Amino acid sequence: MQEVILRLHEFWAAHGCTIWQPYSEKVGAGTMNPATVLRVLGPEPWNVAYVEPSYRPDDGRYAENPNRMQMHHQYQVILKPDPGNPQELYLASLEAIGLDRTRHDIRFVEDNWESPALGAWGLGWEVWLDGQEITQFTYFQQAGSLPLDPVSVEITYGLDRIVMYLQHKTQVWDIDVDGVHTFAELFRDPEVEHCIYDFELADVERLRQLYEIYKAEAAACIARGLVIPAHDYVLRQSHTFNLLDARGAIGVTERAKFFADMRAQAKAVSELYVEQRRRLEFPWLKEENGRTGERENGRAGEQESGRAGEAIAAPQAFILELGSEELPPQDVVDGIAQIEEKLKALLAKYRLRYEGLRVTGTPRRLVAFVTQLAPQQADEVVEKRGPSVAQAYDSLNRPTKALEGFARGQGVSLEQIEVRDNYVYAVKRVAGRPTLEVLPALCLELLDSLRWGKAMRWNSSGVAYPRPLRWIVALYGDRVVPFTWAGVTSGALSRGPRFADAAARLPAGGFTTFPVKDAQTYFEAVSAEGVVVDREERRQLVAELAQQAAASVGGAIPDDPALLDEVTDLIEAPQAVLGTFEAKYLELPAPVLIGVMKKHQRYFPVMRDGALLNHFVAVANSNELAHPEVVREGYEGVIRARYADAAYFYRADTSRPLESFLPKLATLTFHAQLGSMLDRVERLKALAPQIAQMLGASPEEVAAVERAAALSKADLMTSMVIEMTSLQGVMGEIYALKSGESPIVAQAIREQYLPRFAGDETPASLPGLALSLADKLDALSGLFAVGAVPTGSADPFGLRRAALGIVHSLIAAGVDFSVRVGLEAAAKLQPVAVSDASTTETLTFVERRLQGVLAEQGYPFDVIEAVLAERGDNPAAAVRACKALSEAVRQPWWSEAFTAYARCARITRGLDALLPLNEAAYVEPVEHALHAAYLAAVERLRDAEEPANALGDALCTLQNPINAYFERVLVNAEDETLRQARLALVQRIARLPQGVADLSKLQGF
User: Fold this and answer.
1) Minimal CB count within 10 Å: which of 327, 523, 709, 735?
2) What is the pLDDT of residue 306?
């Protein structure tokens, strides 16, 4: 371990870093050392490297975990400003400490960093070495609540894990520190003692007093302008907070207050530091010489040569490759979609004809390929309307000064003036410019138009992109399309994949490149480097290779499109590796094992006949691993540590009944105005049984629902769910069974969260359905009442998902349920007043989700609108009505039957009150005939199990009586009694569809 530290010191010192020392205060990370958190502020350059013992009490495991401890060693590097190749320098540093990159799978996996206490955040990655996180790599965007300019690169090595790997140890405790002592000999006893203190002995009240003392001391130092002493006391607050958190003494609301206090003081310290450096006139700031952008790319300068003037006469292919450091998986997908949509529009805007457009990408390159792009723009006719003819010409038909001025202003001669519609028009025919001339502007407009969920700055250009852009290939045929964006100049030189860099044995900071001869051969060139650039091809290859690996042990990979997508967008070339873990871990619940694989490692589980095997499939970023056995060993080692952690959580959680976790829910805030999660549980205990009764539950089922509601959120406070929130409900079911609860109660606890996403399963039991509906109705009613309504893409409480869950669950169950009645019941239990208007707004929100679901099922828009008008608060009934009505309107007799019905509906549209039937007033036989037909229709609808299924036939049988009636009878008779009787009969017919659909919303009404 000592040797590794020395080599890192030598490497980074050789690359301009000052070798710093660990800080004198306890810190949670090397970031908190003033050499980082303060020196990244302001404009001065600063490169530094140092070891930092870092303390995180909550990570303590009593030395029982292979590599997770409350005290670990970090090696911290700051590069300010970004040197342009920090990833390559970092990878070279791994070689310097003896790690042969050709033997390993090294990847940059999205992991954005934030410190709420320090007001600091950045975007970047965790670096994986054969699946093991060994480094945090971040581009700082803010520190001390101050934006950073220039941006600093932070590289935080997990020193213990790296050394463990280099020495082929299965746990950090076996590390050889100095050739004499092991890690355990030096650090195990202090680790265990700190865990005893952190989790058992630390006195909460004394810690709170210390926190307030440190806060007061920090304030005093800030008032005197003492930067470092003030920072020290902020660090002491931070460590004290972490101890309180480890003792479980910090609630959600309280946590936010702690963070706000520390953030305010950290900001004050940061401002003091910047002002201190400003008074010194930033002495380390030197004027930078030379260009600050990226290096020129291949033939970027060829536009200055004579060849650039050669005309292109025939259509050519166009390629645009945006090369960057590893994009987050979602940005690969979003980038492909955006570029395709926006490039199509821009090609039309720039009047450039083409044959085809293909957009695809990998984590390191987004690619747009246009085939048969015309050599120049289509000509354009530009017209501008001028004065009227009367103003443009005098009585002798000579041009007036008004016309001459108009022509001069438009740059046209009088011969180019045309007369139409009593106005003059200036008509200019503008010849299209060569494509090579307009493509630079088009590319710049394209890049400027891209929008991202999270974007970052990294160089002096100030341009934002998801991760640093490092190269651009832009070719029209074999000609470079010249432009510069984000400090990067386009050219004809692309970069190779990471595994090619590793094999090339480059100097520190170097990377492989390859020329792109022309746009048409781009895909051949990138394929020759081992990159599977086409996303769909790569996705299919990942799926096939993973299934082949699983099949080798008689297993199969379960269908998981989301995981497949993520893995696809983490790599440029796939190679599947089958791994194994100890069979003893199969004693843990399968959802835990699978959850760890997917969330932490992006491994595919291997199943056989519905049971999990002690195997997994990982996908390496390589076209051919030189040493797959080494990579496999690494994959297996990291899952071993993960499962050891899971076992630790599981033992801790199952050592006590699930119900015992309930009191801690009081510290977990649901919403400031709606109380804690414990308050929410009390509401669910009252609401869920009511919902169950509305669903027709038996007394036993109602009792089960009430018990499930009482335990519904208890698992949120368990260690396993705190570690993996995706297991909420799942662990609730498992822990409920362990605690002796009935299977139906345990099942309902899990089913309350269903469905979790589109296409997910819905509750299978009535208690589960009742609790699921109660959970969602409570959230919708309360949050709408306090104004926490989804806006645009922002939906922090997942209310769209909740509304869709109600709709899908009721449709799947096929049970009638009034969402309005459910919302009204939920409203009565809220701690805030819920107005009728709020309930109506919430119901409309749910109805809009139902409308979307019905549209996805293929029902006609007008049928959906008609049904929602009557059954919008009853999803299952709405589906039945849509199905029946859709079938009816397709019948050959529908048009005439509907026309006859519409006559009744139109003539009584203005009647609000229901008129009484008066058969005695009839004077024509057709009146009695229609009355009898109406009564038969009423009886048919009443006797039908589903009135919607009988409505079409009822209207069909009424067609002839209605037509005969209107042919022989004047409805608005002069006699008042007769008129009222006739209107009453017609009104009753018009109201027959009530409760099924409002037929006035159908086309043709």
Assistant:
1) 523
2) 41
